[in-house]
């Protein structure tokens, strides 16, 4: 292969992380490369979506307040952290309510589409 040439490949979907074999074929033959590619576990979520139904609605700040004051655990701490300050607090419910009903700032990314958390913090990830 000369510099500047491209190689195309098909990457099948895989639901579990881990190493896989890569098989390379061309007109001269083929070879298998064990553990040549590793799928990583990536968990996506929607910021502000405290009840993890992939929609931002009144039920999300209610869920945040209920969990904060009446107990329980968040199924995704990062989704409940609307302002992405690294902690789930009453301010997250206030920010979500402000966005939904008062034209306030939206939740921090990933929003308005699900994505990954690009901000390092001490919160537990999403299952």
What's the helix and strand layout?
Blueprint: E1 18-26, E2 29-39, H1 59-70, H2 77-80, H3 90-102
Antiparallel strand pairs: 1-2
Helix pairs in contact: 1-3
Provide an overview of this structure.
The protein is of the alpha+beta class and 127 residues long. The chain has two domains: 14-43, no CATH class; 44-127, Dockerin domain (Type 1 dockerin domain), CATH 1.10.1330.10. The protein is 23% helix and 16% strand. The protein has three helices and two strands; from the N terminus they run ββααα. Strands 1-2 form a two-stranded antiparallel ribbon. A hairpin with a 2-residue loop joins strand 1 (18-26) and strand 2. Helix 1 packs antiparallel against helix 3.
SS summary, helix count: 3
Order of helices and strands: EEHHH
CATH architecture of the largest domain: Orthogonal Bundle
Largest sheet: 2 strands, antiparallel
CATH class of the largest domain: Mainly Alpha
């Amino acid at each position: 292969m000369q510099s500047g040439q491209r190689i195309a490949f098909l990457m099948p979907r895989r639901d579990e992380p881990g190493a896989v074999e890569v098989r390379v074929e061309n007109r001269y033959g083929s070879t298998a490369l064990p553990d040549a590619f590793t799928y990583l576990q990536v968990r996506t979520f929607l910021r502000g979506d405290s009840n993890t139904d992939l929609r931002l609605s009144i039920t999300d700040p209610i869920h945040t307040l209920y969990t904060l004051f009446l107990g329980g655990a968040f199924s995704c701490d990062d989704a409940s952290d609307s302002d992405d300050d690294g902690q789930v607090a009453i301010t997250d419910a206030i920010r979500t309510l402000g966005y939904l009903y008062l034209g306030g700032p939206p939740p921090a990314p990933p929003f308005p589409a699900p994505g990954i958390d690009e901000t390092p913090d001490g919160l537990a990830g999403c299952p």
